[in-house]
Amino acid sequence: MGRDDYLPLFETRSAKGRLLYWLYAVTVFLGVLSICVYRVRHFPEQELKRWAWIGVFMAELWYALYWLITQSVRYSPVYRYTFKDRLSRRYEEVLPGIDIFVCTADPVLEPPVMVINTVLTVMAYNYPPEKLNVYLSDDGGSEVMFYALLEASQFSKIWLPFCRKFKVEPRSPGIYFSSADEIPVDDVIFAKEWQTVKNLFQEMKERINEIMKLGRIPDELQKQHKGFREWELGASKRDHQTILEILIDGRDSKAMDVEGKRLPTLIYMAREKKPHYQHNFKAGAMNALIRVSSRISNSPIILNVDCDQYSNNSESVRDALCFFMDEEMGDNIAYVQYPQYSNNITKNDVYGNYLRIIVEVELPGADANGGPPYIGSGCFHRRDALSGKKHEKESKIDWKKENEIRVKESASTLEETKILAGCSYEENSQWGKEMGLKYGCPVEDILTGLSVQCRGWRSVFFNPERRGFLGVAPTSLLQSLVQHTRWSEGHIQIFLSKYCPLLYGHGKIPLQLQISYCCYNLWAANCLATLFYVIVPPLCLLKAITLFPQLSSPWVLPYAYVFLAKYSYSLGEFLWSGGTLKGWYNDQRMWLYKRLTSHLYGIYGTILRSLGFSKLSFQITSKVADDDVSLRYEQEIMEFGTVSSMFNILATIALLNLLTFLWIMARLIINPQTTDLDSSAVQIILSGLVMVINRPVYEGMFFRTDKGRMPSSITYQSLILATFACLLALY
Ligand SMILES: O=c1ccn([C@@H]2O[C@H](COP(=O)(O)OP(=O)(O)O[C@H]3O[C@H](CO)[C@@H](O)[C@H](O)[C@H]3O)[C@@H](O)[C@H]2O)c(=O)[nH]1
Ligand SMILES: [Mn+2]
Questions:
Q1: Three-state SS for 19?
Q2: Counting Cβ atoms within 10 Å, is residue 91 exposed (0-12), middle (13-18) or buried (19+)?
Q3: Residue in 138, 308, 349, 445 annotated catalytic
Q4: Is the CB of 105 under 6 A from ligand 1?
Q5: pLDDT digits over 497-515, tens only?
Q6: Which ligand gives the minimal distance to the CA of 618?
Q7: 462-478 pLDDT, tens per residue?
Q8: What single DSSP character describes residue 298?
Q9: Domain boundaries, the chain
Q10: Are the C-beta atoms of residues 534 and 596 closer than 8 Å to each other?
C-alpha cells in the first residue's frame, strides 16, 4: 500500500474550552501568590501562634505545589477513536494471536463463578477463536477453581455460538442473564435458545456453588479430568508443584463448539508455590504467565485482566489492534490501557470508587503527555515491550511473518513448559527486574508501565463509548480505604526509590509525563498538610489564636477566590464527567478520608518497610459481601461496622471539629464579647465545612442502630480523645 492512500486506523482529538481553563488556572495561581504574600507579611510575634502559622503556611504551600502538579494532567486531554472496518479490510487474514491472562488468587474473596464469567467473556470476543488463548492463573491453587474452569470449557461450546448468533452483549452469561431477566418474546427461535442456554448456565452455576460449599471434589467428578490428581497428591494453596492443564487446545482442529467452529485455547495454571519462597503476588503470576504462554501460543499481543474485570465489549480486541497495527503511529505503542470501571457503582458512589476525575479527565490528560500509566487490568500489551525489550526506531512489523515465527518458537512439551512456572526458575535472572513485571512494589503495574515507557515506548488510553471492561468495586468504607492504602503506599515508594519518575524518567520520557506520574506518586504526601488543616485550626480557635485574615480585611479575598474557584471548577469537572452533585460531595469526602487514613498508613508502611520491620504484603480486595452489607451499599449508607484504627482517626477528627464548633457557638450566645467573630470567622467556617462533610460519621456514631454503624468502642475512645484535646487547648 502506498503512502498516499494511507488511512489511519485510529484518530486522536483534543479537548475544547482550553481558554476558560487557562483563565481559571492563571487566576487561581495569582490567588495563591497573594495568600503567600499575606502569610509572609502578617507573620506573628507570639510564640505559639508563630508555630501554628508556620504549619498552616507549609500546608498551604504544599497544596499549591500539589495543585500545580495536578494541572499537568488537565491542560490538554486527548480522546482516541478507532476504525475497525479499515482494520478488517486490511488485516483480517493476518490478524495476530492474542494471549489473555486472567489472574485470580483466592476462591473465597474471588468466587469461581465470577472468575469463569470473566473467562467466558474473553473467550467470546468477536475475533477468530483459534487466535485467542486464554490463561487462567490461579494463585489460590484451588481445586474448586479448576473444576469451575473445566465446567466453563464445556459451557463455552454452547455459549460462544449463542453469542455469535444473537450478537449478545455483554458476553458474561452471569451478567447477561441477570440483566435481561425477561424472555425475549418477539423472536421465537431466539427465545427458545435463550431459555435453554440460561437453564444450562443456571445448572452449571449451582453445581459449582454446591462444590464450593462442599469444599472438595466428589470422586465421580474427579474422574472427569486427570488434572484433579494434583490435589489428590496433596496440593495446598501455599505448597504445590506447578499445575498446568490445557482444557481446550485451540491448535487441535477437533476442538469445536456445538456448531462446528473452532474454539479458543483455554489453560489452567497454578504456578509452583513453596513456603519460604517470595512469590511476588500478581507480578510473579504475570511473569510466569508470560513465560509459559511463550511456549504454548506465544502471541505478540497480551491482554491482562483481573478476575473480576469481565469484558463488556466484544470488539475490544479489534479496537486495541487498531492502535498496534496502525502503519504510521502503531510501532511505538507498547500498551493500550482501558479505564477500570465497575458495574456495581451506585448513583452517587458513596465511596468514590469510580475515581471519576482520574478516569475521565486525568488519564486522557496523561495520554497527551506520553501515555497513561499501566493500571493493572484491561490492558493490551505488546509482548516484546512487556518482556523488557527497548523500542527501536524503524522496526516495522510484518504481521504475517510475525505469526509464523511465533508459532515456530513456541513448540515445546507441557513438561518442559511447567519448569518455567517453577519457584526457582527466576533465581539469578532478570525477571522482575529488567524483564516482565517488576517486583517489590505494591503497585507493580504502575512501576512496570513507567519502565516500559522509559524504554522508549509510548502508551495509549482508550475509552470507547461501550465500556471495555467492568469489575467489582469494594462495597465498604474500610475495604475502599485499605485498597487505597496499598495504592498510595506503592506510589510513594516509587517516588522515594530510584524509580522516581523525575530521576528515572529524566531524558527518557517527557517532563510533563514525569510530572503526571507525581500526581499519584505523591498522593500519600498529602496526608500531613490535611491532618494539620483539620486539627490545628479548630484547636487554635479554642485558644483564641487566629490563623486567617479577618472577615473585614481585603486579605480574605484571595482565600475566598481560591476556595470558590477551585471547588466550582472541581464540581464543574465532576458534573461534566457525568457525576451528580451528591456524588461530588461523596467524592470530596472520600478524598479527605483517604488523605487522613490511607495516605497516612501508606507513609507509615513505607517507613516500616524501609527500616526492615515489615515485608511487602498484598491484601486482596474482596469481590463479595454479606447480604446486609450489600443492601446498605445499594442504599448508599456508609458502612463502618468493624473496629479499625482508621475509623478512630476519622471519628476523632469529626468530633474535635464538632466540639469546637459547639463551644464557640455557646460562647457567642452566652457571652458574645469574649469572642472576636471577625477574626475567628474563617476558622469557624472551616470547622463548619469539616462537619458538613462528616455527616455520615456523626450519623454512624449517634443516630444509627444497624450493624453497619460505628462500633461503640470507637465512638467512646474518639469522644474521650477529642474532649481531652479540646480541654488541653482551653486550659
Ligand atoms: O498474590 C496475588 C494477589 C493478587 N492477585 C490478583 O491481582 C488482581 C488484583 O487484586 P485486587 O485484590 O483486585 O486488587 P485491586 O486493588 O483491585 O487491583 C488493582 O491494583 C493492583 C495493584 O495494587 C493491580 O495489581 C491490579 O491489577 C489493579 O486492578 C486480582 O485479579 C488478584 O487475583 C494475584 O494474582 N496474586
Ligand atoms: Mn480489583
A1: helix
A2: middle
A3: 445
A4: yes
A5: 999 999 999 999 999 999 9
A6: 1
A7: 999 999 999 999 999 99
A8: -
A9: 18-74+529-583+614-730, 96-314+389-435
A10: yes
